[in-house]
Amino acid sequence: MSLELLAAQARTCTACRLAATRLNVVFGEGNPDAQLMIVGEGPGEEEDKTGRPFVGKAGQLLDKILEAAGIPRESIYISNIVKCRPPANRVPLPDEAKTCTTLWLNKQLELIRPQIIVPLGATACEYFLGEKVSITKIRGQWLEWQGIKLFPMFHPAYLLRNPARTPGSPKHLTWLDIQELKKALDSLGEKPSRAIKTVSQESLF
Ligand code: SF4
C-alpha cells in the first residue's frame, strides 16, 4: 500500500455523513518520508474547494510560521483528523472523527512513520491523547503517542482570532513553540532543513 493508493481510495470515501456536503476529500499532502507530520482538525472552505490542506487564511499563517522557523512546508506532511469539511466548519463529531481516523489517518501515520507529530488545536490533540484536553495547558509540551514524539501547538485559526503579540499571548507562545520544534527537528540527525533565519516576532505575525 502506498500513500498515493490510499489517497485514491479516500477520494471516494462515503463512510460518514460528511461525504454528503463536501466538495473534495482533503486527504493530505507533503513529503511521504517526512520526519514531521502536522495534523489539524478538518478542512475549511478553501480546502474543500481545492482539495488541499491548510490553504486558507489559517494555512497561510501556518506557512508563515513554518517559513520563519526555517521548516520548508514541502519537507513535512500535513493532514487533518477528518478529510471532509464539516458543515459551517463545525467541530467534527466523535463518530466522524473515529470513522475517518480509523480508515485514513491511522494508515497515513503507518505509512509515513513520522518521528514527530504536531497536533494543532484541541480536537487533534484529543484524538492522540484519547481524552478532552485544554490546548492552552498542553501546548509546547513534549508528549508521546505510540512511541512517536507528540508536540501540541495552537491551531493557526485560533491565532487569527487572537491577534495580540504580547508576551504570553497565543502568538508569542507559538513563536516559542515553533523554535523548540525546529531545534528538535535539527537534533534528529538528518540533513537540517534550513538554518533558522533571523526574524523578529513582528515580521512573523
Ligand atoms: S470525513 Fe473521512 S470517513 Fe467521512 S466521508 Fe470523508 S473521508 Fe470518509
Automatic annotation (TrEMBL):
Coiled coil: none
Keyword Iron found: yes
Any one GO MF annotation of this record: uracil DNA N-glycosylase activity
UniProt keywords, alphabetically: 4Fe-4S, DNA damage, DNA repair, Hydrolase, Iron, Iron-sulfur, Metal-binding
Source species taxonomy: Bacteria, Thermotogati, Deinococcota, Deinococci, Thermales
EC number: 3.2.2.27
Protein name, entry field: Type-4 uracil-DNA glycosylase
Reaction catalysis annotation: Hydrolyzes single-stranded DNA or mismatched double-stranded DNA and polynucleotides, releasing free uracil
Enzyme class: hydrolase
UniProt similarity note: Belongs to the uracil-DNA glycosylase (UDG) superfamily. Type 4 (UDGa) family.
Transmembrane segments: none
Organism per entry: Calidithermus roseus
One Gene Ontology biological process: DNA repair
This protein's record includes keyword Signal: no
Superkingdom of this protein's organism: Bacteria
Domain Uracil-DNA glycosylase-like positions: 27-179
